[in-house]
Write a structure and sequence with these properties.
single chain, mainly beta, 3 helices, Tumour Suppressor Smad4, 12% helix, 299 residues
């Protein structure tokens, strides 16, 4: 018997037209400006998204790499010798063995052979001149990601572009946890699917309607991949991200600041694979807040 839930939904919808705004916070805008400044600095960092120069899915076994055309992985010219070495890919273990006469660095220490860490949450970057690289694990594959810290993209980048801070997009929301173990299928820009942990959802009112978006990830905060009616017009068409640093208390109102919606790495680099929003996270309302697209690129 689902009459009670049906009445509850009807009551919520009736109340949606006149939501209660969060209380004024004089520290809100300065904190937002500082958060945006940190986001800008992070994007411009060494090994940041603006420096990426290649993404290479490796095959099991030996993968030769370097700038020579006879390698399995061919780097752009200027990013190392013709043959840098070989990366041996085995289940659970990736070993980089350098060619004779080639030395790389990890945290300033030289090496000629190294077992590479592959945890995406802790980048195991190694360095050869202006080039840096690391290996990440993606489902059952290993990917070599290459960066050029003298990238023309990085040198010429003129900055992110943001909507002006707008308190109308600070909305009251409620966090509702899911039972432990719930998964959500996420598709990325390469049409690859992965099942991600979904800790819960948040519900909020915007534009006179109730909206509900699912979070993914299993850390201390809440991460959302979403899209709204500005997509492809003033914001990045595939979608944007939002992160709440600490999980709110279940069932109690908290302030969800949509001024902190930001672009995924794919908005800045062709060498990334970003998740797309699940259907329930595609909002029918405009969110004229947060980061715009395109950013101020070179020129």
């Amino acid at each position: 018997m689902r009459i009670a839930p049906a009445f509850a939904c009807a009551f919520v919808a009736a109340c949606a037209a006149a939501p209660v705004a969060p209380p004024a916070d004089p520290a809100w805008e300065p904190a937002l400006v500082e958060w945006r400044a940190r986001a800008e600095r992070s994007l411009r960092n060494d090994n940041g998204w603006l420096t990426l120069a290649g993404r290479y899915v490796m095959k099991p076994g030996a993968n030769t790499f370097g700038t020579g055309k006879d390698n399995d992985i061919v780097f752009p010219a200027g990013l190392g010798p013709a043959r840098i070495g070989t990366i041996d890919v085995q289940p659970g273990k990736v070993t980089m063995k350098l060619a004779a006469g080639v030395t790389m660095e990890k945290d300033g220490l030289p090496f000629t052979e190294r077992v590479m860490g592959t945890d995406a949450g802790k980048r195991d970057w190694v360095k050869l001149g202006r080039a840096t690289m690391h290996v990440i694990s993606r489902e059952d594959r290993y990917v070599l990601r290459l960066a050029d810290n003298e990238s023309e993209v990085r040198k010429g980048f003129q900055g992110r572009v943001w909507y002006a801070p707008d308190p109308a997009y600070r909305v009251n929301a409620t966090y509702v946890p899911y039972p432990p173990g719930r998964k959500l299928t996420i598709i990325n820009v390469l049409d690859e699917a992965s099942d991600e942990v979904s800790p819960g959802y948040v519900e909020f009112t915007l534009g006179g309607r109730i909206h509900r978006i699912d979070a993914v990830g299993d850390d201390a905060g809440l991460f959302f991949v979403l899209r709204d009616a500005t997509a492809g017009e003033t914001t990045y068409r595939p979608g944007r991200f939002l992160y709440v640093e600490k999980k709110p208390e279940a069932g109690k109102p908290f302030v969800l600041d949509l001024n902190r919606v930001y672009n995924p790495p794919c908005a800045f680099s062709e060498f990334t694979t970003c998740p797309l929003p699940p259907e329930q996270n595609i909002l029918k309302v405009r969110v004229d807040a947060g980061e715009k697209y395109p950013p101020r690129r070179a020129g």
